[in-house]
Amino acid sequence: MWMFATAGNLSILDSPKGILHITASGRDKSKLTEHDFIQIELSSKNPLENTPNLKPSAETSIHTALYSLYPSISCVLHVHTPSSCALEFGLSRANPIQWIDLPNSEILKAFGDFTEEPNLKVLAVHNHGHVPDIASEMTHALENHQSKVPFFLIENHGITAWGQNVYDANKNLEAAEFVLQVMVARQKK
């Protein structure tokens, strides 16, 4: 279980229609129905309907940025795992991004790297209080250095993983969490 309390958010993109379906803020993810999602027009980033009892996820700007950066993806998952919240990289408003080396682990093959000694890095972004600042920092970093792994970290906050479909995004999320658990275990040594 990675969707503790009402934390985290999920989205699916209907590419032909350009419509993003994202979980509303504060919804219990173990009891989701279609009524717990808000439709957002990807091009304008605006909700399609006035839903006064539903508020878009705080991380909507991150989801829309990822769909713009990676046109082949159709699912984004953002969760707050203990390991993603435990790792600290010394980021700050003045030093908001860092590329972190991932440990050499068999699970990296889940990301399509079958080399004997992969040299993969993941983007970590400072946990700004204003989420659009996180989206902006992430976008700038990923535009300038194409990530070879389909996830990034918000320091002391969580993992955001993506994929071509729900299955692919979930596989990437599981592999990312495994790698982060290895990193936490190695820090304890």
What does this structure look like?
There is one protein chain. The protein has 189 residues and is an alpha+beta fold. It has one domain: 3-Layer(aba) Sandwich (L-fuculose-1-phosphate Aldolase), CATH 3.40.225.10. The chain has 4 helices and 9 strands, in the order ββββαβαββαββα. Strands 4-3-2-1-5-9-8-7-6 form a 9-stranded mixed sheet, sandwiched between helices. α1 runs parallel beside α3. The longest helix is centred in the C-terminal third of the chain and has 23 residues, at 166-188. The chain starts with 8 loop residues before the first strand and ends with a helix.
Output the keywords:
189 residues, alpha+beta, L-fuculose-1-phosphate Aldolase, nine-stranded mixed sheet
Rg computed from alpha carbons, rounded to a whole number of angstroms:
16 Å
Low-confidence stretches: none
State the CATH superfamily name.
Class II aldolase/adducin N-terminal domain
Terminal Cα span: 26 Å
Helices, by number, come to 4
Tally of domains? 1
Order of helices and strands: EEEEHEHEEHEEH
The coarse overall form would be globular
**Sheet with most strands:** 9 strands, mixed
Q: How much β-strand is present in the residues?
A: 15-25%
Number of beta-strand segments? 9
Q: Which structural class do you get from the secondary structure elements?
A: alpha+beta
